[in-house]
Amino acid sequence: MERLDNQKIALTIKNLRAFLKEQGLSSLYVPSFDQYLSEYVPLEDCPRYFVTGFTGSVAEVLITSDKNFLFVDGRYHEHAAIECDPKLVDVVPCPYGQANFDALMEKAEEAGGTLGVFSSRTPFHSFKKLEEKFKLKLFGETKISALFNFGASSSDGLIGRIPLEISGQTTREKLDELLTGEQACFISATDSLSWLSNCRGYQIPYMSSFKGKGLGLGNMLYLFIPSKDCLSKELMRENDLHFYLLSEMEEVLADKLKDVGEVIVDPLAINTQDYRFLKGLKSEQVREKENYLVKKQSIKNSSEMKHIEESFERSNQVIFNSLMWVKNRVEKNDEISERDFFDNTNKYYKEAGAITNSFNTIAGSGANSSIIHYKNPSADKKIVEGELVLLDSGGYYEGGYATDTTRTILSGGEPTSEQKKIFTLVLKGWIAAMSAEFKEGTIGSELDAIARRPIVEGGYDYAHGTGHGIGVHVHEGGYSITPTSKVVIKEGTHGSIEPGIYLPGVGGVRIENTVFVEAHPEKEGFLRFKNLVWIGMDPSLIEDSLLTEEEKLYLSTYENECQKRGRSMVSS
Questions:
Q1: pLDDT tens for each residue of 79-135
Q2: Domain residues for 537?
Q3: Are residues 91 and 168 in the same domain?
Q4: If exposure means fewest CB atoms within 10 Å of the residue's CB, which of 37, 47, 392, 571 is most exposed?
């Protein structure tokens, strides 16, 4: 959709303040979600966008009678300050370790009184936290749609099934492992629904999933979707999937759940409105189990691993080609912009067979490379010699599993000592994590400390985690490497390792590889990482004097493999 102007944002805020007064509310929680709780909600369907103009994927908003607070984490501190008009939006940059939602609750406590909540777009897990502290008033999808005047959100993507040689398991086999005869599970997280059904639809930008909700019962998966026009002909003949319209969901659930002993829901992945409906149907039978499906879907089988590794090989070549394109153009003194870089990278993905990108390509140069999730590559910002250039990108191929990789290079010319120092410190953190050997049962925070230590010892830090899970969507649970993560890192999971340093006004460095967690072949009870990314580092940015002999050996071995695959900058 077209960028909102400040006049439209001001009008929406004015209307919401009138709604506060009319409903007797002291404050109103404005979520970023759609009813499926998607991570990348199209802007035309994102409530938070209409009152802030902020385009990042993660944030929280609280509106009071005189304030409009936007809470953002470290990935978006610089981004939000650039995008939001301070006359309309009070940006609250949350320090690392404080969740946006927790900061929002603190402001809501200061406001006192009754807090308004849109139940169809609020995760039940969040609602439970609010319910403990506040007097609440709930409003459904009809009310939020009337208040925000959302634009048309497309569901045109055709839903089809990926082949068994990629999924590795049928839907029935997955249901057999998840449920006993008396159990059912309700699914509203679109990545979990896509994983369980082995279907993909590409109906939301940067997601291979489809819009819908589901009920797993016995050996059947009942799917509730906005329209049946988006079903492929082959899918209509499948005998383990049964499709209904989303408008029929409550009626069908009431019928199918009559004799069920237990209905399992994930409070992290169900909206409050759906939870309350199920609770009304089966009061004593609803059981909450956090990450119930994610614990299973995050463990990749051999077929999934094979396809994911093949997908990364294609993306690896795309990224290398795009980075070398920048270097070659700058060396020739050709005029190129960030937007050219962005467009060219996305073109390379399409040429490699990508169906779409797995997130909005981050292509920043110079000072813009320090904006962690830089979303607006500029046609006016030219890439010139001596700049740090950061590319974070990914794609979806035939199986609909995301790829995600980041590299930072020097555009050309000679680097400064500061550029070399921060790049090499990030490289040291990356090597430390990539080469880690750790006991079964190790939690994410322990691995985060390994990656972060060289960077902190060098006098820097970074305001994001070191690694996230990757699956049907580019962010998946079951794998989390952050300073506060208590997630046990398990064999078979797939995720990123991505330390960084960001200096506003100067530039930023991030190095991101993705890995499978595998059993150590020589040390019983230990795990290690299997690398999926073979793209060499920019040798001009490496300060050899900062590397130990062990680090130099690891890097040399890595570069040799990149060279064999034709993706080393040392020989290019």
A1: 899 999 999 999 999 998 889 999 999 999 999 999 999 999 999 999 999 999 999
A2: 302-564
A3: no
A4: 571
Find tokens 């990356």 and name the residue: 430
Give the C-alpha separation, 138 to 116, whole Å. 6
Same-domain check for residues 408 and 436: yes
CB contact set of 481 (below 8 Å; sequence gap of 6+): 433, 444, 445, 447, 448, 451, 465, 466, 467, 468, 489, 495, 497
Residue 572 falls inside a structural domain: no
**166 lies in some domain:** yes
- Asked if residue 155 belongs to a domain, the reply is no
Cα distance between residue 173 and residue 176, in whole Å: 5
Structural contact between residues 338 and 200, judged by C-beta atoms closer than 8 angstroms: no
Compute the distance between CA of residue 311 and CA of residue 374 in angstroms, rounded to an integer: 24
SS3 183: strand
Closest CA relative to residue 492, chosen from 315, 307, 297: 297
- Within a domain: residue 571? no
Strand order in the sheet with 213-217: 241-245, 220-225, 213-217, 183-187, 262-265, 286-288
Among 244, 264, 297, which residue terminates a domain?
A: 297
d(C-alpha 98, C-alpha 116), whole Å: 23
Residues 15 and 65 placed together within one structural domain of the fold? yes
Which of these, 393, 394, 452, 426, lies nearest to 508 by C-alpha position? 426
| 497-550 residue pLDDT tens | 999 999 999 999 999 999 999 999 999 999 999 999 999 999 999 999 999 999
- What CATH number corresponds to the domain at position 23? 3.40.350.10
Q: Are residues 333 and 462 in the same domain?
A: yes
Separation between Cα atoms, residue 329 and residue 172, nearest integer Å: 52
